[in-house]
Amino acid sequence: MKSVCVIGLGYVGLPLALLSLEKGYTVYGLENSPVKVEKLAKEHPNISLNSPDALLSDVIIIAVPTPVDEKKLPDLTPVRVACEQVAEKLTGKGQLIILESTVNPFVSRKYVLPILEKKGFKEGKDFFLVHCPERIDPGNRTWNVSNIPRVIGALSPQGLELSTEFYKSILSAGILPLSSIEAAEMTKIYENSLRAVNIAFANEMAIVMQNMKLDAKEIIQGVKTKPFGLDLCFPSCGVGGHCIPVDPFYLIDESLKRGFDPSFLRTAMRVNGYMPAYTVSLLMHALNETGKSVNGARVGVLGVSYKRNVDDVRESPALDIIKRVKSLGAELKVYDPFIPDYTNATAEEVLACDAVLLLTDHSEFLDYDYSKVPVVIDGKNALDKKSMSGVYKGIGR
What we know:
about 15% strand
């Protein structure tokens, strides 16, 4: 295996491409965003972009998004389009096709495989289909694409052997081959569903504690003193990113099709989905305490990205909150140093507003002086409420 093609050069695909390049592979990349292609061509000239020879590579990694639609149902369109591209160019010479995109159990076998075999090539003989779910954590400086342990599932023993050999050649982390491709698919869905449920519990308890006039952050810090048996999450204004707000809906959909309603997981997702509206309700009540309404108020927003110190707005609760506040008639001033496209004000202009919504806990935001802000809504529970002279409301505080 000497050449690698990565389809989709986003947060998952680009680090994989660069790591493969570093380990001595000839690397091709397929990306459908002209803006991104232009940028990547300048920053990473050693990756051959959108070459007609890309899909002739020994290893083809599919790392495209797997979103949900407006009804929270799985949308496999990007996967289908990528697989159709691969199918058209299959050589029949034992290429390794790796799906890293997060999918439900049986998607690789029942959805991807028929597309790849439509021209007559057979898996296990002419090519090998593998699933190795990505585990990228954007912005995490400790865990990166090279040192995060991986799991692998394949449709054939040879595919499992080849993929294990490939990942061992680029990773410094452990690799766990699983018994089936479905086991690998389920591993990632399980991980993100577990996280979603834990976050939902924290969010629901935050609302309960806020109604009791208890400080959720203080309570959780107390709970954390127990040295065993805990997996704690902190409440916030909502859940963002491509995984936790999305992947559990894949599992819900598949389970419903098989006759079982995972009601607890559905409830967890409903709780998490409610948090932007709850955050706006905190803003309304806080402004009322100062004799103002949201309508006509100058409301500043700090942070649009879903996560601290990253430039990613996928499923960001800030987008929902901004939309809701705007619909209530507020004049919005938005600042995010990582997302210039959404920024329409300076930090100073935001802090001069009638109320400030902290929706992302970027490092620089934590150093600001909020003492003169009339209303602070701390959507990340990141600030010291004792330092506030105005009305302060956190999530559950």
